Amino acid sequence: MTELMFYHAISSRGAVVRWMLEEVGEPYDVTLLNLKAGEGRKPEFLAVSPQGKVPALVHKGEATTEVAAICLYLADAFPRAGLTVPVGEPRRGRFLQWIVFNPSAIEPAMMDAKFPRTENPPPTAIGYRNLDTLLDVVVQGLGRGPYLMGEQFTAADVVTGSGLRWGMLFGMIPERRELKDYVARLTAREAFQRAEEKDAKARPQAG
Length: 207
Description:
By secondary structure, the chain is an alpha+beta fold. The chain has eight helices and four strands, in the order E-H-E-H-E-E-H-H-H-H-H-H. Helix content is 50%, strand content 8%. It has a four-stranded mixed beta sheet with strand order 2-1-3-4, with helices on one face.
């Protein structure tokens, strides 16, 4: 038993945390849940994740849910992996911006584009712009280097890059050249490949 317990379901947002764990390089255990069989609603899992959703992570008895929060926690808890920008550094703010950018802006804008509202809310009523504008922001951010923080690969690339990859896979994000090249750099990483291989091996037992 390791100090890190990862609650996961195949073909879920848990894949983002699996990749992050592989980047961190620390040993971890996996509890694989079959959500279709209702395992996410079992009391023992609801005690870890009150929404009954994956991913969730327990480290030394403390549970964390939400993809961005888990990835940020891991980056800060294991700084030797080089996936964070330390508290006190001026670049920390930009790092935090990028680590929450996908779940707080790109993903809801993507859902708006996929499932249009009958009436568009005023821009001041929501905390994000339309999808094309947000993708412009990402492309501009990548102008500093191959990654969102320039030359440094961080947890922000895991979170926001995963969202972009998922959106392009399902035709919900246009395949702009800059974004395709960025995602290609991410999926070429050894840790990403290991995560994909582990999920592929676990898929038959996932039900």
